[in-house]
Amino acid sequence: MPHLIFNDSFINGEFYHTEKHFSVDDPTTQQSIVTVSDIDEDGVNKAINAAHGAFVKLKATNATTRSEVLMRWYELVMQHKKALAELMTKEQGKPLKEAQGEVDYGAGFIKWYAEQAKRSYGDVIPATDDNHRLTSFKQPIGVVAGITPWNFPIAMVTRKVAPAYAAGCSFVLKPSEHTPLCALALAYLADQAGFEKGAFNVLLSENAKMVGEILTESNTVRKFTFTGSTGVGKQLLTQCASTIKRTSMELGGNAPFIIFDNADLDEAITGLMGAKFRNAGQTCVAANRIFVQRSILDKVLKKLAVQVAALKVGNGIAEDTDIGPLIYPKAKQKVQELVADAITKGASVIGDDKDLGGNFQAPLILTGVTSAMDIYHQEVFGPVASIIPFDEEAEVLAMANDVPYGLAAYFYSQDIKQIYRVSEALEYGMVGINEGLISNPVAPFGGVKQSGLGREGGHQGLDEYLEEKYVCMKI
Ligand code: ADP
C-alpha cells in the first residue's frame, strides 16, 4: 500500500471527519482502496471561512516569503515522488512511469510559481495632467474555489493552487471523487511546507452538485477555477454569474492531429502514439481526429498498426505496462458505444477488439471515420485512434476547425510555408508542430471557443489570480 493516504477532508490545517462515507476504488482491480468521509454543507462553509481567515493573513505577506513556502512544498513533493506516483497509479490507473512523469510535471508548476511569485509587477502610467501621478498594481483576488477532474490528479491541482498561493490567494478545492487521495496528500505536504492554516483546504465529496453550488454562490469566494467537461463547465459558469466571480475554465477538446504528405512519418507516428495513447487516451488534449493525407495513408496505417499492436495493456504498477485501465465501467462503455456506432456507419477496425475484462480497453485503430459518426464529434477519452483521410490543405483545415472546441491541435509538416499557414489558421489555443506532447509549466495552457476561458501555466497563469488596481493621485 502506498504511503500518504488520508481519509478525511482537510480544513484549516486539520483533517475534518464526517459520518457519511464513500469508497475510492482502484480502477485496475475495481476493489475499494479506502473509504473516505463525505463532506457536509457545514464543512463546505467552514472551509470557505477558514480560507477567508487565511486570506487576511496571506495578503499581508510579502512575495518572497510566499515564494520560499512554495519552494519548500516543491521540495517535499519531489522527496515523496515515489509514494505519490504509486498512489496515483492506484487511484487513477495510469502506468507508473506516466505517474512519475506527472509528479515531475505537477511539481514543475509549484517551482515555476515559486519563481513567478516575485514578478507580479505593476505599471507607472505617463500622466495626462501635470498634477496627476498614475500607477496600477496587482493584488490577490481573494478566496479561490476550484474543482478538478480525475485524469491528472496532481498536475490539475498544482497548476491552480500554486499560482493562487503565489498571488496571495487562499484555496478551497474539491478534487474528483474518483481521485481525492493525491489531492489530500498534496494538501498535507503543503501544510508541512508552511502554508498558513486554511490556505489550502480539500473537500471530499460524492455530491459534487451540492459542493459546487455552495462554492459558486458564496460571496466570499471571489474566483472560481474549473477543469472538466464542457457541460459541467457551462453549468458552473452560469452559477458563478450570480456573484460575478472571475472564472477560469479548462474544458473539453476534440484535437485534430494532421499528418501532411511531406512529414517525417516516423516522427509523426512517435508523436501520435504519445498524443493518442498517453493515459489510455484520457486527456483533454488527446488526438481525437487523426487526419492523414491520402497519398501516405497506407504507409501511416502500416507503421501505426505495428506500434499499436506492441502496446501492453495491464496493471499500471508493472514496469512494462503502456496502457492501464479506464477510470470506471461507464468510461469503457462509452468508448465501446462510440466504436460500435462508427462500425455501423462504415468504419473498419485494425487491432484485436476482444474484451480484456474489467475496465481494460484494447487499443484500436478505426479507419474510414467520417463526420457522420459520433466518434468524430465527441472526445473518445479512450485508446482508439480514428483515422480520416484528406486530399487538400484547405479541406483539412476546414474539417479541423469545424467543431465547437478549440483546445489543442497538432500537425506534422516539413514545409516551412505550410507550417506558418496552418499554425495561423488552426482555431485552437495550443498548437504542436512536429511534436505530440506540448504541456509545460512555463507556457500558457488553455483553449478557445467552448474549450474554455483563461490560461494555466506561464506568466499568464499568475494573472488569473490577481486583480489590477489603478491609482490616480493628485499632487
Ligand atoms: P468527468 O466526466 O471527466 O469526470 P466532469 O466534468 O463530470 O468530468 O467532472 C470534473 C469535476 O467536476 C469532478 O470533480 C466532478 O466531481 C465535478 N462535477 C461534476 N458535476 C458537477 C456539478 N454539477 N457541479 C459541480 N461539480 C461537478
Automatic annotation (TrEMBL):
GO molecular function: oxidoreductase activity
Stored InterPro entries: Ald_DH/histidinol_DH, Ald_DH_C, Ald_DH_CS_CYS, Ald_DH_CS_GLU, Ald_DH_N, Aldehyde_DH_dom, Aldehyde_DH_Superfamily
CDD domains the UniProt entry points to: ALDH_F5_SSADH_GabD
Keyword Oxidoreductase: yes
Gene3D superfamilies the UniProt entry points to: Aldehyde Dehydrogenase, Chain A, domain 1, Aldehyde Dehydrogenase, Chain A, domain 2
Active-site residues, Swiss-Prot/TrEMBL: 250
Every Aldehyde dehydrogenase domain range: 20-471
EC number: 1.2.1.-
Keywords of the record: Oxidoreductase
PANTHER family linked: SUCCINATE-SEMIALDEHYDE DEHYDROGENASE, MITOCHONDRIAL
Protein name per UniProt: NAD-dependent succinate-semialdehyde dehydrogenase
